[in-house]
């Protein structure tokens, strides 16, 4: 079993360090996303009841896209797939700012 190397000098490369921790960190981020949805459940339910079209055309697809993006990053293999996935997630997180400006 690999021992945890905390000193950056012990890592062969940053890529090795990233790959060792990627799944754990992204799984926690995905779990945090579900916690955020749970904590905002009253807001989401209010949007569903008062503005159903906004909920089904914006809130639901956006939240599903975030979850699928995290899942895609967790399952991504290789440098190119990780880079594209991270870039897509950054754009996805910026989308509400572009949408509401």
Class per helix and strand makeup? mainly alpha
Put simply, the count of helices is 4
Instruction: Give the low-confidence spans.
Output: none
Percentage of β-strand residues: under 5%
Order of helices and strands: HHHH
CA radius of gyration: 17 Å
Classify the helix fraction into a percent range.
over 70%
Number of strands: 0
Mean pLDDT comes to 86
Largest sheet: none
Number of domains: 1
**Distance between the first and last residues' Cα:** 51 Å
Q: What is the 3D form?
A: elongated
Keywords:
101 residues; mainly alpha; 4 helices; 0% strand; elongated
Walk me through the structure.
The protein contains four helices and no strands. With 101 residues, it is an all-alpha fold. The protein has one domain (10-99). Helix 2 (41-50) packs across helix 3 (52-75) and helix 3 runs antiparallel to helix 4.
